[in-house]
User: Which sequence fits this backbone?
């Protein structure tokens, strides 16, 4: 059984750990607020851009862009996005599980897999996967997340699709739902998939009020101009989603760690007090026995 000194040292150690986890929770909460504001303000633009391109693609003659070309899939390129740091619950582990599952699925279908990893933890995860080609690694991008990073990543993915080294490009990342929920997500990036007005399920009343646009100079030129921007924005949204989800996951993990530390401290304090009381009782009994022996 541990003595009083050992228990007291453990209480002090757990108390210091609790202070650290509480501070980390506060930092994560502050970062999450900024990250959620960023993704919340970006989503409407991305959704409107997708809607606009869908309207452009409603003309079958305009659906000839190189990034919309559907091919027989022999090679898939995965963009895997995870955090730069740990201590965020199951955030990185969820990405690891989804990436491993996707790679195993493609290998079972005899499809070659290559990977671009984003985030230090994603780099570590992907290096452990056997028989896959690591095309590029981008660690430590979330310390200072900028749009140029999304442009670089989008350029690498577009180049791989254009030169034929990848027949399909997919994204694996955590999507921010709310502070309590982060959803591991797998999306097809290329060939481009959009919902055209004809494919959308609408009531007859809604269809009668669908907006028809007049485009200048023409649909084909606009598609060629807008698609690269749309692809850059898709990567940027994925990075912002992942960043917000990471901070939310870390906030929840540190909150849970702080509560667990408090429960452990209470338990050790109870043990400490019980031992101390038993020791005092034992010493009093010894004193009384000694006094009785002297008087006897």
Assistant:
């Amino acid at each position: 059984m541990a003595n009083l000194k050992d228990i007291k040292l453990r209480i002090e150690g757990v108390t210091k750990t609790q202070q650290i986890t509480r501070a980390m929770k506060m930092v994560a909460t502050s970062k999450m607020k900024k990250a959620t504001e960023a993704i919340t303000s970006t989503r409407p633009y991305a959704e409107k851009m997708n809607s606009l391109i869908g309207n452009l693609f409603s003309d079958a003659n305009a659906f000839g862009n190189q990034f919309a070309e559907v091919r027989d899939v022999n090679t898939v390129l995965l963009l895997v996005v995870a955090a730069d740091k740990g201590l965020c619950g199951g955030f990185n582990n969820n990405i690891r599980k989804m990436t491993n599952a996707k790679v195993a699925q493609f290998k079972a279908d005899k499809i070659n897999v290559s990977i671009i990893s984003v985030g230090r933890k994603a780099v570590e995860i992907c290096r452990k996967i056997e028989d896959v080609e690591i095309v590029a690694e981008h660690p430590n991008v979330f310390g200072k997340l900028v749009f140029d990073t999304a442009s670089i990543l989008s350029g690498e993915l577009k180049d791989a699709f254009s030169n034929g080294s990848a027949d399909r490009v997919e994204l694996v990342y955590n999507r921010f739902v709310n502070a309590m929920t982060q959803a591991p997500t797998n999306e097809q990036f290329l060939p481009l998939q959009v919902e055209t007005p004809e494919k959308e399920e609408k009531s007859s009343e809604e269809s009668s009020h669908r907006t028809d646009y007049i485009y200048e100079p023409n649909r084909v030129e606009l598609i060629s101009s807008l698609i690269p921007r749309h692809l850059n924005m898709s990567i940027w949204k994925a990075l912002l989603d992942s960043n917000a989800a990471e901070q939310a996951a870390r906030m929840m993990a540190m909150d849970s760690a702080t509560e667990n530390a408090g429960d452990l401290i209470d338990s050790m304090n109870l043990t400490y007090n019980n031992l101390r009381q038993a020791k005092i009782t034992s010493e009093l009994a010894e004193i009384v026995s000694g006094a009785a022996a002297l008087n006897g």
About this structure: The CA atoms of residues 10 and 19 lie 14 Å apart. Helices lie at 4-56, 91-108, 120-127, 147-162, 204-208, 219-295. The longest helix spans residues 219-295. Residues 27-251 form a domain with the Pyruvate Kinase; Chain: A, domain 1 fold (CATH 3.40.1380.10).
